[in-house]
């Protein structure tokens, strides 16, 4: 019950911020919201899901970079370029349907843990500090892309998982098509994340 109340409060807060509910999967406790950006024709999204697993399990999945293509929507390929403490630099290739070109980028991902409350935040942003390790004229480079995972422990166990993101898709991709399909990707990602969380290899060792 506390988790349900928290979800309702979160939904109300998002509505107050101009967010509109775009997708809902009640059976998996997933909601996806979108809203327009004042400085862009491309919308941004914010999504949420309640999961019975602990934060440590969720973090284990999120930090398993080679497995990203198995569950994060549109990711075709990843390559870890650098690791430094709680920071990772990752080369990512995103697949898009024909006739649009695939995209690629270098993301810097930083994990932060709050001393009080146990909240974990992972922020990722496209950077120019590292060159693209692959040069392919069929791909469009992304330099304006950011996303955030926010993980909050729930009373009695479990985790509230929030994923938000915004960016410019670059190249040719009409905003009408982008915005119409925007909510599908976080919904698919969270659905597959729920399956990943159940895998034995991510469970805490006893």
From TrEMBL:
Pfam families attached to this UniProt entry: Polyketide_cyc2
Matches recorded under InterPro entries: Polyketide_cyclase/dehydratase, START-like_dom_sf, START_dom_prot, START_lipid-bd_dom, START_lipid_transfer
Source organism superkingdom: Bacteria
Signal peptide: none
GO MF term set: lipid binding
All copies of domain START, residue ranges: 18-202
GO cellular component labels: cytoplasm
PANTHER family with a match to the protein in the record: PHOSPHATIDYLCHOLINE TRANSFER PROTEIN, START DOMAIN-CONTAINING PROTEIN
This protein's name: Polyketide cyclase/dehydrase/lipid transport protein
Species annotation: Fluviicoccus keumensis
Highest classification ranks of the organism: Bacteria, Pseudomonadati, Pseudomonadota, Gammaproteobacteria, Moraxellales
């Amino acid at each position: 019950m506390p988790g349900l109340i928290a979800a309702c409060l979160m939904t109300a807060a998002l509505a107050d911020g101009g967010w509109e509910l775009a997708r809902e999967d009640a059976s998996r406790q997933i909601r996806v919201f979108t809203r327009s950006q004042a400085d862009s024709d491309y919308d941004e999204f914010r999504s949420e899901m309640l999961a019975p697993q602990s934060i440590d399990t969720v973090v284990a999945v999120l930090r398993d970079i080679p497995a990203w293509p198995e569950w994060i929507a549109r990711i075709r390929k990843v390559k870890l370029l650098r690791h430094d403490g709680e920071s990772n630099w990752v080369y990512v290739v995103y697949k898009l349907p024909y006739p649009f070109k695939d995209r690629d980028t270098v993301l810097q991902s930083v994990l932060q843990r709050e001393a009080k409350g146990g909240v974990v935040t992972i922020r990722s942003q496209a950077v120019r500090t590292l060159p693209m390790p692959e040069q392919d004229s069929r791909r469009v480079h992304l330099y304006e892309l950011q996303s955030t995972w926010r993980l909050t422990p729930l009373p009695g166990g479990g985790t509230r998982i929030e994923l938000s993101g915004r960016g410019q898709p670059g190249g040719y991709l009409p905003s009408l098509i982008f915005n119409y399909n925007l909510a599908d990707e976080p919904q698919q990602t969270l659905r597959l994340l729920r399956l990943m969380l159940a895998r034995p290899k991510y469970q805490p060792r006893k």
